[in-house]
Write a structure and sequence with these properties.
It is a single chain. Helices cover 35% and strands 21% of the residues. A four-stranded mixed beta sheet has the order 4-5-6-7, with helices on one face. A three-stranded antiparallel beta sheet has the order 2-1-3, with helices on one face. Helix 4 links the parallel strand 5 and strand 6. It is built from five helices and seven strands. The chain has one domain. By secondary structure, the chain is an alpha/beta fold.
């Protein structure tokens, strides 16, 4: 993959994070995590739960900062139905001309309605049902990052 300026945000947690006393730490690959840090709260409480965690809140603030300046967002595997905090982030920080929002999902047509209320521009979609391996996923992601014209994608 070529060098692109991109960020991957784990704002709901990750198997890579573990809670130690009053802080969250990122684990080494060799360590098996028996209690990963994950946010599955009530949708109205997710933003507060993220804010209470030192790593997740830093990731959330970084995502907010990045959305203000980036021109392309690619979401992968998130329905956004129970994510009012993410919808608000997109509306307040990314909803502007000359940006591209790309939804990658096995059923992207079911995801776009959740984002049409917070994004006033065309939402591009890419079905991922054909992606079965890590190599196929990397190839798809690479194509989406490189795409100057998004005419290869469907528009919701």
């Amino acid at each position: 993959m070529k060098n692109f300026n991109f960020k991957i945000a784990h704002i709901h947690g990750s198997y890579k994070y573990s809670k130690k006393a009053f802080e969250t730490v990122k684990l080494n690959k060799e360590i098996f995590n028996t209690s990963p840090v994950m946010i599955y709260d009530n949708p109205a409480r997710k933003e507060a739960a993220i804010a209470e965690n030192n790593v997740l809140s830093a990731n959330f603030l970084e995502l907010q900062r990045q959305l203000k300046t980036c021109d392309k967002v690619i979401t992968i595997g998130n329905s956004f139905k129970t994510e009012p905090h993410l919808q608000k982030l997109i509306k307040n920080n990314f909803n502007r001309p000359k940006t591209s929002l790309i939804i990658c999902s096995d059923q992207p047509d079911k995801v776009t309605p959740s984002l049409q209320t917070c994004y006033d521009y065309p939402i591009y979609t890419q079905a991922t049902t054909h992606v079965k391996t890590e190599a196929q996923f990397i190839k798809l992601f690479d194509q989406l990052l490189k795409a100057d014209k998004l005419d290869m994608l469907s528009v919701a």
